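ARCHIVE RECORD
Type: protein–small molecule complex
Small molecule: 2-succinylbenzoate
Source of inputs: curated submission
Record status: active
Notes field left blank by submitter.
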Amino acid sequence: MYFQRARLIRVELPLLNPFKTSYGELKNKDFYIIELVNQDGICGYSELEAFPLPDYTEETLETAIQIIKQHLLPIIAQNDVSTPEEVHQLFAWIQGNEMAKAAVELAIWDVFAKAKKKSLASMIGATRKSLTVGVSIGIQSDSTTLVKLVEEYVDAGYERVKLKIKPYKDIAFIKAVREKFPKLSLMADANSAYNKEDFSLLKELDEYDLEMIEQPFGTKDFVDHAWLQKQMKTRICLDENIRSLADVKQAHILGSCQAINLKLARVGGMFEALEIAKYCTKNDLLVWCGGMLEAGIGRAHNVALAARTEFNFPGDISASNRYFHEDIVSPAFVLERGRLKVPEGYGIGVEVDFDTLQKYTKTIEEILLNRGRS
Ligand code: OSB
Ligand code: MG
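STRUCTURE (tokenized, with ligand):
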């Protein structure tokens, strides 16, 4: 297979509510849609999930789109690709830049699935028809507001709730939610806001029967996380630390965590994600599918991944209406009795809704990839 052209569509989709983490606040979902077209005119789609600021990982939308234009698309223009797995190898000499790589690789997976007339889920060996899912809730002004919000999501059918925390926006919030919902599957995500000196706060959190505490310490730290995990009943989950299978192995061998938040964008795409999921299952690490406020295309990729049997814990894969007033795919993802359906159509199984997309499109750049080919 070879690719004729690409389109890079810059999109700014307003969030229904600002999303606040320990390190910042987002009001929009700023992203690019990558469209790749093969020699037969089959179109594949993905989202570039990097953020405007280098605050979650090093990449930004600007750095990632440059890597895509200057390095990744030229590789795709110069090489025939006979399986989507090959893409990972073609990109391997480029260090880091996982979100840029994932964006191109995932669009290619979509093209291959469509060319084979298969759903992306079946193409990657995923067998579930529907998924139970969770919701991630940003830091709120006070615990009364938070408890009300949790109630709305529980009523909507979400089976697991993740609360963003940071020092002193933690114990009182978790306590209030836990008192109101004694049996709820509940967890906390610190996005690296703590360090060893905050041990007493984390030890207090250990008493609220949380499913896990996600990424308490720094994004490059494996040693202090291992120190912490040894002293906590609650599972530690790593998110920002995990860019590759090698990181998962290191975390496992050192005992830095008992759970892995797996995000396609953060590990460079589907090939690496599948390797990680298999490794986790083999080594008794809980693996679950995280989220990056994806719009419908990214959400579809996540749903396909989480439909594999390695994923036995509800992902951060909520319905389209958790973040957006309208989604850019049709049909949008809806929660039905607490579950999301795994699309069965070819490829990602949802259509890009270009009428809606147009309203939120900032720029479109087209890049020809088949110069010099007949
Ligand atoms: O840390 O998991 C995270 C969103 C953006 C960046 C990082 C994270 C998140 C979320 C939201 O927690 C997950 C989602 O609902 O998409
Ligand atoms: Mg996280």
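CURATOR ANNOTATION: The mean pLDDT is 97.
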